[in-house]
Amino acid sequence: MTSGLFTGTLTLWAKALKGDRWLVLGWGVALAVLYWAQAWSIDRLYPGEGELARMAAAMERNQAMIALAGPARSLDTVGGQVTWQASAFGAVLLGLVVMVVVTRHTRAEEESGRDDLVRSAVVGRFAPPAAAVLSALVVSVFSGALVTLSLATYPLEVADSAALGVGLVLCGLCFTGTTLVAAQLVSSTRAARGIAGAVIAAAYALRAVGDVSVPALSWLSPIGWYQAMHPFSGLRWWPVLLLLAAGAANLALAGALLVRRDIGAGLVASRPGPARAGSALSGTVGLAWRLQRGGIIGWSVGLFLTGVAYGALGTEVEDLVGDSDLGLEMMTQGVPDLVDGFFATMLLMLALLTAGFATSSMLRPRSEEESGLAELVLSAPLARGRWLLSWTLVTVLATLLVLVVAGLGIGAGYAFVTADPVQAVSFVLPQLQHAPAVLLLAAVARLVHALAPRLASLAWAPLVVAVVVMFFGDLLDLPQWVRWLSPFDHLPLVPAEDASLAASAALLGVALAVGAAGQLAFRRRDIG
């Protein structure tokens, strides 16, 4: 009987892996680079033991950074720094990846009706979710293995490197289970991802509050258990049992809920909406805002907290940068004034993160086309150009909002450590100086989506170029023409340099031209 419940699992798993192969490869490599890059940068930023010890002493006193990254253990060692800087973010990123994988192969399949076609064949009730779980485990194991291999060959201690990899895999297992539970509770992919994302955020928040003020709260979070393994700071393996038990319990709960619901429905019945939509949904702009509201709020909160952490470092910049030329270049962009150069770099980093939001937001109409929802909306007396402009307007306004919130975050952090309330708003205008470059990258994403929707992932390439130019332009001695491909390279580093209205206006003009080309191209192709 049990075997019948899983009939067809391997076939569905093979199909899922074929569709996820690039996601598995890309995220596995990205997570390995995240961990390895910390070791590489620490060795080059702080070549002397005294410099690293001085920076470690400064960071151990910084409650904002502890809340952001985790408990400060053995920060005077490269391995301790890798664990501190990468483990919490690695767990969150892997959690988001497995969330996408699980919902893609479970709730999204049911929502689209493809699951009904699959189940019309000889397929067990548990086969689709089991295939989804196996796919998520492949992502987790592949990522953990690459993390272990990258650190062990760096070289760092093999056992501690393995602990970072194993703990990462088991965090992925925990969040796989919570996502599968969410998929049983609600009937839409968006709601399931919302619940799963909230669980990941709660795990991060519990760990942050626990590490700063209430230690018991850290023991309620899988991320806290992962860091409680103490890699490179007195390794211990018993927290692995907590991660295994939580992952198994979540999967068992998901299985128990699955047998109690109808396929295509959720255990929590969807509430019927009002008979008439509110005034905010009377137009295409209101609809686009409503559909992106959760992402806008999430990005705003995330970048505000990141800005707070950056701002709180303001009085310890000298200890953080160290004495190496590479450290000065990467953290101050070569600006002679350490404080101004540091904040100019942090503002640029926040702008690059905002560009990630703007790109994903501008590509959102693509998912509306793929799901067929765009055709339903456009079946009304609505021009496709107006529909796309509505999404664009929401993206532009939301991008400006996220930039303002990020600037307020860095100002709030700096105001807290300097006890000067005026500083809370002093970084908003400098942050907005990067808006033309961010909007240009968003316009490029719009053009790519309009010309070749199947190749929309290429819209991320300009952002990758901008990141490489910022972090590795001087190190790799990139030619000037490559640097010019980054729109941020054409803007002054405020507040270390004076703002340039001419440069901002030129980039805005290019962004408008690229956006207009995207609008024209979209009107000339078929929907979907």
UniProtKB/TrEMBL annotation:
Task: Indicate the transmembrane segments per the record.
Answer: 22-42, 82-102, 122-142, 162-183, 195-217, 237-259, 296-313, 338-358, 388-414, 459-481, 501-522
Keywords annotated in UniProt: Membrane, Transmembrane, Transmembrane helix
Keyword Membrane on this protein? Answer: yes
- Name the UniProt record assigns to this protein: ABC-2 type transport system permease protein
Q: Which species is this UniProt entry from?
A: Nocardioides salarius
